[in-house]
């Protein structure tokens, strides 16, 4: 690279992000068509190959957050998400006092929510986040006898054990005893949770916390399972306890065509199974004597470190057929993206090394390279589309250079907001005046420059929906040809869309690699 070219490239790198964002301001909609005019640079449109892959089985015990419920997607059909979780002791060898009597047992899993205004009675009103759908579902809770390993015995306990989204049948074969909770008409409520706690003066304080899935479990079951085992080996440490009470299976089932899907954090500090009981204590009387009274106590079992999401559901036949007919040699007319045990798109930018070499010989300074994915509004109109999509190095299971570049670009204090952060890498979905999705735009300037200038490998790129573009962890995939990893933030969203592919009948919206360049003499 000569000195002049190096100087041009260095200057361009300093402004490429700003140019990418600024280009969005230069789009205008006229008659439904998007007109581009990015800084009057030269434009080269490069044919790419893109096709869809159905993810048949994905690791779900490394998600952090989990889905529970039923969601009926207008395109991808009905999906049901259930959860199998370990239960753990907060302390080893718990003692419950003299003659403990269990009063109630409450399962609590907080929703993601935000505080709103005060109502007329002065109570905080909450708005639930990450709830998909609004019709009742059936949920049930039952003890599992399936042992969830933290570490993989086949890897000499040096690696974490992997559990997968398609293992529900196996888990259900290992359920024991009666169902301990069942609700055929469950729907999340935005109401605050109000409880009462006795203070040091013996008065009842009112405790208010955010909305949660909060249900009562049977006292007799936990009296026998936990309270009666005080002093035994099964409560002496968590290894023994996890083998004794191997887990709880929280199952969701549809009650109608639609349903409700909930995005949960089971490792929230308030999540768990809380036992409320009383025990005998000696207290002083006014005349200097003592008396025995019953004093309230509580003990909370936590959800363990191994929590597995399972998914059940089938795509409609025409959608599944279109995905299966995606051609890795020529690409596809439509690109399918869906979360959960979902569908991703594979993008190949250059067809051969000879094509890349031709670009090297052009002596171009690449100012910007991008991929614009247009929503197929004929196929995906009036759906709840994902706000963000995520592009990554599929072959090496890592972020691409443009993602890393965007990390260093602070965007008006929104760098941690999943809806707006890293927009210099991946723009949030553009919508028309009716709220329908138009397109997503991905910046691949640094990635393309690295291939052409630095001779880095022309890897396959993976495209997926994402719940949070700030999180880039990937989950292992099995039973899916040519795909080994899939973003965890794609697993934990039920949203999906359909995009125009490189063979789209609408030539204006076909997927292409657009390279804006300056010729260097």
From TrEMBL:
<dbReference type="InterPro" id="IPR025366">
    <property type="entry name" value="DUF4270"/>
</dbReference>
<feature type="signal peptide">
    <location>
        <begin position="1"/>
        <end position="24"/>
    </location>
</feature>
<dbReference type="Pfam" id="PF14092">
    <property type="entry name" value="DUF4270"/>
</dbReference>
<protein>
    <recommendedName>
        <fullName>DUF4270 domain-containing protein</fullName>
    </recommendedName>
</protein>
<keyword id="KW-0732">Signal</keyword>
């Amino acid at each position: 690279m000569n000195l002049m070219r190096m100087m041009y490239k260095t200057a361009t790198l300093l402004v490429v992000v700003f140019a990418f964002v600024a280009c969005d301001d230069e789009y205008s909609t006229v008659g439904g068509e998007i007109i581009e005019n990015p800084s009057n640079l030269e434009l080269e449109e490069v044919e790419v190959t893109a096709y869809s892959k159905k993810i048949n089985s994905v690791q779900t015990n490394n998600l952090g957050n989990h889905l529970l419920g039923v969601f009926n997607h207008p395109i991808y059909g009905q999906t049901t998400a259930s959860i199998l979780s370990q239960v753990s002791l907060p302390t080893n060898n718990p003692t419950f006092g003299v003659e403990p009597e269990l009063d109630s047992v409450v399962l609590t899993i907080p929703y993601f929510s935000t505080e709103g205004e005060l109502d007329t009675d002065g109570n905080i009103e909450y708005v639930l986040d990450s709830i998909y759908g609004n019709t009742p579902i059936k949920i049930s809770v039952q003890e599992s006898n399936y042992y969830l390993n933290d570490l993989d015995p086949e890897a000499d306990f040096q690696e974490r054990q992997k559990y997968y989204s398609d293992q529900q049948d196996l888990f259900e074969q290992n359920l024991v005893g009666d169902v301990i909770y069942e609700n055929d008409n469950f729907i999340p409520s935005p109401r605050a949770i109000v409880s009462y706690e006795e203070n040091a003066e013996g008065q009842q304080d009112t405790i208010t916390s955010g909305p949660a899935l909060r249900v009562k479990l049977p006292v007799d079951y936990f009296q026998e399972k936990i309270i009666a085992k005080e002093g035994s080996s099964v409560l002496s440490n968590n290894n023994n306890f996890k083998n004794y009470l191997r887990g709880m299976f929280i199952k969701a089932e549809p009650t109608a065509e639609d349903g409700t899907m909930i995005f949960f954090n089971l490792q929230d500090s308030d999540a768990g199974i809380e036992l409320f009981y009383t025990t005998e204590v000696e207290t002083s009387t006014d005349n200097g004597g003592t008396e025995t009274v019953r004093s309230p106590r509580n003990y909370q079992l936590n959800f363990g470190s191994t929590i597995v999401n399972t998914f059940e559901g089938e795509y409609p036949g025409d959608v599944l057929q279109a995905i299966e007919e995606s051609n890795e040699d020529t690409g596809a007319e439509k690109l399918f993206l869906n979360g959960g045990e979902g569908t991703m798109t594979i993008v190949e930018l250059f067809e051969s090394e000879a094509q890349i070499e031709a670009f090297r010989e052009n002596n171009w300074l690449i100012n910007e390279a991008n991929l614009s994915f247009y929503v197929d509004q004929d196929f995906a109109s009036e759906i709840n589309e994902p706000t963000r999509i995520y592009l990554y190095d599929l072959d090496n299971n890592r972020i691409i250079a443009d993602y890393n570049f965007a990390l260093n670009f602070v965007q008006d204090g929104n760098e941690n907001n999943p809806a707006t952060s890293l927009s210099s890498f991946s723009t949030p979905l553009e919508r028309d005046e009716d709220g329908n999705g138009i397109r997503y735009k991905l910046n691949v300037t640094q990635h393309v420059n690295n291939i052409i200038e630095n001779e880095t490998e022309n890897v396959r790129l993976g495209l997926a929906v994402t719940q949070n573009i700030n999180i880039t962890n990937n989950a292992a995939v099995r039973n899916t040809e040519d795909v080994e990893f899939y973003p965890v933030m794609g697993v934990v969203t039920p949203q999906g869309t359909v995009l125009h592919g490189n063979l789209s009948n609408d030539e204006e919206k076909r997927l292409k690699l657009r390279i804006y360049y300056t010729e260097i003499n």
